[in-house]
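task queued by scheduler; priority normal; single chain, no ligands, no partner chains; default sampling; output format set to structure tokens
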Amino acid sequence: MEWDAVELARRLVRTESTNPGTGEAGIADLIESELKKALPSYGTLQRVEVSRGRPVIMAQLPGRSAQELVFICHMDTVPLGDGWTKDPLGAEMENGRIYGRGACDMKSGLAAALSVFCETAQHFRESGERPAKTLKFIATMDEEGDMAGAQEVIRLGWVNAASLVADTEPTDGQIQTAHKGRYWYSYTISGRAAHASRPQDGADAVAGMARAICSAGKSISELTPDPFLGQSTIVFGQISGGIHPYQVPAKCTVSVDIRLVPPYSADDLVRILEKAAADASREMDREFGCTIECRGARPWIAHEEKAEILRRLREAVYSAVGEYPAVGPFPGYTDTAVIAGTLGNINCISYGPGSLEQAHRPDEYVRVDDIRRCRDVYGCLVKKWT
């Protein structure tokens, strides 16, 4: 095969696309080159700069029907980081594994989808025919950041509410369909400064924050779990407070990351954080104020058992591997989740090689047989579509 998914994955791993860091231009050049080799004359290829040196790419095989199946894959990886015993850009092969930054998340999935798209495009170029339905391949930037690439893809109209959209994130052999909501806040407790020798004259915002954190954590743990997505969670990732070691601190700020399940909303989270400040005031017999600044909000995405993409992908997995896959939620937030939440598209799904446990770690790897399995599944999916 001209587009061997395993060798293509190794080439992609060797091309750095860290975010923050090098960015996606180099890997975009590689992808664009492969797409140009494959597309028939009626195929389309677009490359749009979202910011300098950071593009998104879309290749399309227009079908006799406007119905479209879309593979969407992000080009960026997290930074290389420390602690590697392998070359993070070496794509070393050992014991049936490919090692390197992005090998798992998600250059192996990108390679598998790109190889299937290119081989399909080449088939139609040689036959002179057109597919029954439209097939697209989209490569995004900034998935490991603010997901600006997915947002740009939506703005450009490359996907719509009726598109069947599959990303190739690592899913441990599962089909993964749903996402917890993702909310970030800057949360500040305000107290009153005083000399450290007279704490009774002040209101210690750091101590108040300690109590507020406990209260908010307890409230989140008491929210009703969702049968499919599980329990809501809260993490306080960063904290700062006070200006001098001999002064009662008047202010303390933490970052708050909350992963929320149905039926709760951002309004519920604000009430929980406000209550946490009030609980701190009551427990310490001091007046504390609070400010809550939303830094990001992504809605939860529910499981859709009747989604067409779920049915088709289940059938493709069965055709390729001889058994139906488990179906579960995706632990994080993906480009398809952005599309689902923004457009109300119920046909958004994740299925790809590797395990999320390997993502973002030193000595990240993907199994070669995982790449081949997913390439076969994507091939079955596309064959029935086109």
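post-processing summary
- DSSP finds nine helices and 17 strands in the chain.
- The longest helix spans residues 103-127.
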